[in-house]
């Protein structure tokens, strides 16, 4: 559920914390640290320094930060400024995608100061919220008079709604919040009598981006992109690692301040960062939030689920878990495709990319025909309002109803094109306006999520391809390593230039291919306390602990997650191993190895990892290549669990054929190898100062002169063929 309907009540939710009071007064917002089940309340009050002095009416309660921008479209809410007054742990959890409860507030008013007369050491309220009623709040002088034991009875009183409540406010001095001063704005001073409405969330507190960014000087490549945009060209920007794609787009939007830009980003964390970076002529959205802005009046916004788990689907349709799993896979694939009907999906490609579904069909667990019919039933139930809808559903409906045709901007900026999907391409293509698509095909690493590099489709639509090659992240030695990798295995002719200076090393990361390898590294570092995982350990340990529980150590205290229940179909571990080899599931093969070798210590490793995860900072970080994308460290070490690329290429016909297939656009059957190369490139380019790849199998061969000569000869032959 993403927006809550709270039943009519005169309850007041009391929250402790001066910082929250600041945020409420400045922004009309309160974002809870976690999604605790708050009782329905019409008002919120803030308790700080032993006094309750201010309260507000709750306008909306949401469970997704990104949706604030959907309810108030076109806003640039300064969330980064808001986050500056919150603690670091909160900011980190928000960046990791942890869900929050968001209260949008209106008409912040004073009440007569209510003084804490509690005898408790921690005071009237410490960390957990408390509740009272609006009549008690307005009539009390001491916290002991706010006793909430009889709230239910009191809340039925017929007090008028907030705008008409008369407050017997004493004469209070204005509160000043010097911490809220921004570098470009005057000191922020608010009085308790100030009134804030949701419309005021649309104002930025700082000066326009133009004044803050006027000292940005574009590189020659950036200058050329801006010039070609001014000529009215659609542009595909090939932005190699660390080459300043965000700066380029910012310069573009600053150069044309009177044009209205729609900037579509990968996820809501990127959206929040971009909203701080870009000016008021740029509307920043995820593809889902864009769709929601148009669909919110056509669907029940109070009846949402983020996703359906397999047991929920099974109960909804009255089917077993195997069919429920198939429905989940087909439903998601349909929602991300460009086809309009489920039956139009291309299952020849579908089975190739969905080994779990292929396994269900091959073992006879399901009939694909029945699975399709069940998926259609599931989709219709959402259409008819019989079950809560998902984010993917309203995105698909936005496409099917042709609503993108009514979106109007002067230009559309699309980020991360290499890890997009067909529905995004279809929607962006339908929106009227000049297109700037930005991505790096060498960073396409999410094929297992059915992502697709849509850059080529924009090229075929007559977009002009332009590169960004100056990396401001690393120096020339790291650039050489990345260039050797791409030129040897992908015949890339454009070279990255490392223009960053050398620096001292203060942190490092071990970047693995699999989650299971992180578990193994943790077992080696269990007595060390200066490390942490980048990703939540519950996700990292999920597969190896499930396999351990089922096959090698059933005594561990662990419950198999619903999305891994298919493992229970295998009677013996060797059957699971055979399956993992058949489908070439590297993650599962690695997890099986951990279950065999670390079954006696895996639970201890998990508990240690959970403790370490709470650290604010560490000297050593543990992450997979997938999770590392978008991050950077001074020094990186690649682990030994990356596959032997030359063996894999040899099985597909050798290097010349591998290069030919990439060049001719026939890469479907080698897509898995290409993504493994991309993972190495992503991992290597996380380094600012030093990259150690010595543990990779055949790392010396990777950059040998013999291999380079074979690639160069192949490319010359391809060039000669094209001349003919």
From TrEMBL:
Keyword Ribonucleoprotein: no
Assigned EC number: 5.6.2.4
GO molecular function, one term: DNA binding
Residue ranges occupied by any UvrD-like helicase ATP-binding domain in the UniProt entry: 218-475
Binding site for ATP: 239-246
InterPro entries: DNA_helicase_UvrD-like_C, DNA_helicase_UvrD/REP, P-loop_NTPase, UvrD-like_ATP-bd
Taxonomic superkingdom: Bacteria
UniProt-annotated stretches for the region Disordered: 145-191
Reactions this protein catalyses: ATP + H2O = ADP + phosphate + H(+); Couples ATP hydrolysis with the unwinding of duplex DNA by translocating in the 3'-5' direction
Protein's name in the database: DNA 3'-5' helicase
Organism: Athalassotoga saccharophila
């Amino acid at each position: 559920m993403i927006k809550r309907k709270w039943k009519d009540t005169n309850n007041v939710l009391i929250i402790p914390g001066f910082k929250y009071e600041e945020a409420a007064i400045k922004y009309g917002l309160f974002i809870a640290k976690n999604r605790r089940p708050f009782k329905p309340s019409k008002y919120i009050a803030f308790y700080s320094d032993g006094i309750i002095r201010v309260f507000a009416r709750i306008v909306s309660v949401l469970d997704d930060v990104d949706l604030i921008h959907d309810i108030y479209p076109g806003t640039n809410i300064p969330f980064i400024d808001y986050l500056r007054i919150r603690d670091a742990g909160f900011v980190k959890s928000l960046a990791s995608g942890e869900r929050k409860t968001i209260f949008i507030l209106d008409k912040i008013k004073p009440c007569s100061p209510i003084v804490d007369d509690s005898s408790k050491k921690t005071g009237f309220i410490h960390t957990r919220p408390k509740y009272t009623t609006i009549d008690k709040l307005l009539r009390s002088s001491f916290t002991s008079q706010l006793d909430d034991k009889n709230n239910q009875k009191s809340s039925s009183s017929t007090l008028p709604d907030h705008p008409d409540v008369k407050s017997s406010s004493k004469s209070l001095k204005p509160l000043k919040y010097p911490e809220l001063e921004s570098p470009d704005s005057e000191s922020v001073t608010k009085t308790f009598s100030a009134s804030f409405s949701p419309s005021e969330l649309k104002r930025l507190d700082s000066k326009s981006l133009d004044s803050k960014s006027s000292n940005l000087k574009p590189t020659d490549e950036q200058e050329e992109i801006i010039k070609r945009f001014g000529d009215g060209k659609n542009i595909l920007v090939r932005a190699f690692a660390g080459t300043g794609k965000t700066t380029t787009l910012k310069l573009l939007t600053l150069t044309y301040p009177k044009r209205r830009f729609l900037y579509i980003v990968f996820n809501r964390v990127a959206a929040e960062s971009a909203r701080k970076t870009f000016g008021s002529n740029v509307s920043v959205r995820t593809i889902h939030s864009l769709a929601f802005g148009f669909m919110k009046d056509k669907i029940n916004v109070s009846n949402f689920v983020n996703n359906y788990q397999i047991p929920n689907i099974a109960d909804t349709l009255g089917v077993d878990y195997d069919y429920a799993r198939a429905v989940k896979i087909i439903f998601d694939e349909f929602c991300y495709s460009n086809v309009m009907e489920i039956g139009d999906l291309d299952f020849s490609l579908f089975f190739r990319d969905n080994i779990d579904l292929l396994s269900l069909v091959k073992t006879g667990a399901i009939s694909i025909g029945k699975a399709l019919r069940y998926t259609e039933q599931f989709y219709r139930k959402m259409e008819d309002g019989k079950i809560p809808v998902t984010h993917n559903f309203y995105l698909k409906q936005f496409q099917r109803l042709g609503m993108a045709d009514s979106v109007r901007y002067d230009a559309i900026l699309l980020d991360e094109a290499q890890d997009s999907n067909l529905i995004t391409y279809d929607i962006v293509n339908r929106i009227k306006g000049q297109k700037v698509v930005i991505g790096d095909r060498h960073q396409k690493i999410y094929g297992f999520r059915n992502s697709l590099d849509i850059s080529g489709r924009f090229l075929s639509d007559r977009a002009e391809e332009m590169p960004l090659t100056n990396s401001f992240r690393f120096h020339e030695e790291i650039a050489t390593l990345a260039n050797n990798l791409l030129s040897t295995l992908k015949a890339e002719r454009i070279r990255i230039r490392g223009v960053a200076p050398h620096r001292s090393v203060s942190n490092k990361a071990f970047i693995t291919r699999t989650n299971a390898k992180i578990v193994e590294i943790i077992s080696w570092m269990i007595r060390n306390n200066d490390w942490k995982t980048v990703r939540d350990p519950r996700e990292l340990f999920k597969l190896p602990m499930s396999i351990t529980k089922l096959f090698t150590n059933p005594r561990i205290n662990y419950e198999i997650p619903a999305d891994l229940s298919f493992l229970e179909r295998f009677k013996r571990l060797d059957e699971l191993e055979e399956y993992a080899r058949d489908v070439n599931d590297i993650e599962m093969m690695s997890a099986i190895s951990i279950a065999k070798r670390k079954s006696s210590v895996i639970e201890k490793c998990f508990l240690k990892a959970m403790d370490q995860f709470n650290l604010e900072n560490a000297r050593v970080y543990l992450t997979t290549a997938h999770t590392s994308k978008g991050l950077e460290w001074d020094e990186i070490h690649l682990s030994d669990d990356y596959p032997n690329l030359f063996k894999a290429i040899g099985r597909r016909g050798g290097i010349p054929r591998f290069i030919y297939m990439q060049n001719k656009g026939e890469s479907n059957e080698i897509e898995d190898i290409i993504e493994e190369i991309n993972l190495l490139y992503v991992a290597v380019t996380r380094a600012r100062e030093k990259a150690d790849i010595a543990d990779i199998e055949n790392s010396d061969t990777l950059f040998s002169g013999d291999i380079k000569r074979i690639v160069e000869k192949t490319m010359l032959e391809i060039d000669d063929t094209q001349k003919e």
